[in-house]
Amino acid sequence: MSLRTRVGALAALGVGLAVTLTALAAYLTVSSQLQSSVDANLLDRAQQAVSTPFGDPGQLVNQPAEAILAADLRIALLREDGQPFTADARSTPPMGRDELAVARGTEEQSVRTLRLDGEPFRVVAVPAGRDPIGAEYALVLAQPTEQTEEVLERLRLVSFIAGGAGIVLATWAGLSIARAGLRPVRQLTQAAEHVAATGQLEPIEVTGSDEIARLAHAFNAMLAALSEARLRQSRLVADAGHELRTPLTSMRTNLDLLAQSEASGGLAAADRAQLIADTRAQAVELSTLVGDLVELSREDPPAASREQIDLADVVRDALGRVRRRAPGIAFAADLHSWIVQGDATQLGRAATNLLDNAAKFSPPHGTVTVTLRDGVLDVCDEGPGISEVDRTRVFDRFYRSSEARGLPGSGLGLAIVKAAAERHGGSVEAGRAPSGGARLTMRLPGASSTALD
């Protein structure tokens, strides 16, 4: 069953139960009231009959029913020995033990339903006094219940018709309400099916502010996030293809030159060595670029479940590697222990990239200042610095400022720093150093920080 059908069925069931209970309560109430009214009327007539001038048992039985306002009744006197007396034997009411008990004085009155020749009667009995010889009597009145049964039958019919109509209307209303209320859900379903079939991440129109509208807003936000992820992926692929094209073209050119030289007698030893060195450098650059792309493509969770490491030791190892690669640059380090929970390889790569970037932009014999205090790693150089326009973009993938375009690199080093910091619950920022150069800052929470939770 569809959700719409289930909602309609539940509405019909709920209204059907309510209508059924209401009709049953009304029927029972009316039936009880009618029965009470008939009983009260019969008892009142019986009491009036025994209190009339004809109340003497000897005369009461010989009076026509109209004399005691009982034309629709059967009337009789029942003596304590069980002998009935009536003016017309054909109109004798049904009688039994309860009426005899009233005649004998053991009961004040009796009210019950009896059948005579298959016809139901409501029978009441009240004491009617004594005759001259001292025998006690009871006055018995019996009224047919045919009119009451007709009224109750009509009430049952009306209740059944009204209940059926209520259930039909409730079903129609439930289906209509379900169709209107579930329209946003149907739109969400169609939108999801459209995305799955076409791949087009088009948001849907949202109206209202209820729970379904919130679901639609969340769906649109998910589509926006997917669209942004797809855009970033396309940009990464395009930028990576552009960056890979340069070293591949250079390597192919060098290999073509080697092949042509071999066909024409070969190159001089120095030229051949230079060509091979250039090809090897391009292969190293290509390998580094591929490694950077792999690093950026990782989607590791935050480092909450990794080992505890001292960030100062990681930075010292990175300093050792960068000093060997940049012997003309001086490094002044002031490192204080800071325990973090994370991946030493990722953090080492990030620290190395920060130091390599500072060494690349530092002038010959310049000094790079490295400080680590309370989880804040500052790397300052004495280079040209970073302009205000570029500070917000230097950590983007493949972004290279105008000053860096003539230098080696792919524009992925600082993007890797940002990715590593964010994977460890930290952040990065660019600023200006006191010397006027660039200042790159990476902040990481300690192992006991709630930022890792």
Structure report:
It contains eleven helices and twelve strands. It is of the alpha+beta class and 453 residues long. It folds into three domains: 3-152, PAS domain (Beta-Lactamase, 2-Layer Sandwich), CATH 3.30.450.20; 211-297, Signal transduction histidine kinase, dimerisation/phosphotransfer (DHp) domain (Helix Hairpins, Orthogonal Bundle), CATH 1.10.287; 303-451, 2-Layer Sandwich (Heat Shock Protein 90). Strand 11 (427-432) and strand 12 (438-443) form a beta hairpin. The chain is rod-shaped, with a radius of gyration of 52 Å. The protein starts with a helix and ends in a 10-residue tail after the last strand.
Q: What attributes does this structure have?
A:
five-stranded antiparallel beta sheet; Beta-Lactamase; 11 helices; Heat Shock Protein 90; rod-shaped; Helix Hairpins; 453 residues
Structural class, from secondary structure content?
Answer: alpha+beta
CATH class designation of the largest domain:
Alpha Beta
The proportion of strand residues reads 15-25%
CA-to-CA gap between the ends? 43 Å
- Give the ordered list of helices and strands: HHEEHEEEHHHHEHEEHEEHHEE
The count of domains is 3
For the secondary structure, the number of strands is 12
Biggest sheet character? 5 strands, antiparallel
What is the count of DSSP helices, taking H or I runs of 4+ residues?
11
The percentage helix is 40-55%
Enzyme class: transferase
Domain Histidine kinase: 239-448
Organism: Jiangella aurantiaca
EC number: 2.7.13.3
Helices and strands, with pairings:
Layout: H1 3-50, H2 57-60, E1 74-79, E2 84-85, H3 97-103, E3 110-116, E4 119-130, E5 136-144, H4 146-181, H5 183-198, H6 211-263, H7 269-297, E6 308-310, H8 311-325, E7 330-335, E8 339-341, H9 344-361, E9 367-373, E10 376-380, H10 388-391, H11 413-423, E11 427-432, E12 438-443
Parallel strand pairs: 7-9
Antiparallel strand pairs: 1-2, 1-5, 3-4, 4-5, 6-8, 9-10, 10-12, 11-12
Helix pairs in contact: 1-4, 6-7, 8-9, 9-11
